[in-house]
Amino acid sequence: MARNYIPTVPTREELNSIDGGLMPIINVNLIEGRTVDQKRKLVTEMTQAVVNSLGVKPEDVRIILSDMAKHDYAVAGTLFIDR
Q: Which residue among the candidates 7, 10, 24, 58 is catalytic per the annotation?
């Protein structure tokens, strides 16, 4: 005899228990040249903004910083290095 399956929406607690749950992952692309101290300040303030706006714990926030060379970024057909 087949079982009737009624789908349910998981609770926030259930989502949080699944592989980190509601862990936000933020990607930030930066033109090369920022100092480590500037990046520290950026991730600290971004983390706090995510905590305040999404209601997650700071340890659940992931931020990936990617430095781009000036010759790897263009606006309106012009490389950043050529500006």
A: 24
- The answer to whether residues 28 and 65 touch, using CB atoms and an 8 Å cutoff, is yes
Detail the DSSP E strand segments found in 6-81: 25-31, 62-68, 74-75, 78-79
Residue range 29-77, pLDDT digits in tens: 999 999 999 999 999 999 999 999 988 999 999 999 999 999 999 999 9
Cα 2 to Cα 5, 7, 9, 36: the distances in Å are: 9, 15, 22, 59
Q: Look at the block and give the residue holding tokens 């480590």.
A: 36
24 is catalytic: yes
Looking at the domain 20-82, which fold is it?
Macrophage Migration Inhibitory Factor (3.30.429)
> pTM, whole model, 2 decimals?
0.70
